[in-house]
Hints:
CATH architecture of the largest domain: 3-Layer(aba) Sandwich
Number of strands: 6
Largest sheet: 6 strands, parallel
Amino acid sequence: MTTSNDTIHVLLVDDHDIVRTGLKAALRAHPEFNVVGEARDGQEAIREARRLNPNLVVMDVRMPRLSGIEACRDIRSEQPETNVLMLTSYADERAVMASIVAGASGFMLKEVQTQELLEAMRTVGRGGKILDPTSAAAVIEQIRRGNVVSEEDKLAQQLSERELRILDLIADGLTNREIGEQLYLSEKTVKHHVSDILAKLGLTRRVEAAAFAIRRSTQRPSS
């Protein structure tokens, strides 16, 4: 889909239909943008990017099944000519750093004014890089503290807060029943969460999840 003219072919990726609809409506008045496709999660984003080969992927950070950060890494690995602009509802230092490490060329908050977002899309869609001031400040703070984003941290971006807590308890050697007692969940619910955690991290065994959690904790800088 990439062409030699000035048109920026865009793939919109967000699990909320209203966000994609709003972005499409904003882009209609700007002929330099051509929305070629949409996706609702990271897995769809990878598939559609592969099929459409857009100039620009505008993608939410947190989505079901596969996060935007993981999708960004795969897209940029397969299609380095495709630029990615990450969107999020709030600034998060680790999300910003993980997005940059994954190959994103821009990171913007959804609360920005429409014109700011359009300018960011123009910049990234034509090969430039951009961070909104809040995200830039988060990056500077991470660099100042000497923090780096480990491979484990990047994968862990897919997990919910509850799943992260369960992962830590797995590393502590607790059984599903013991985890349920601590978190006031049924053993069946914990088992379901553990299955989701393994799937999101690309693991098959509980012991691998425990090792993953331990590696992640040992790689975090001390405060």
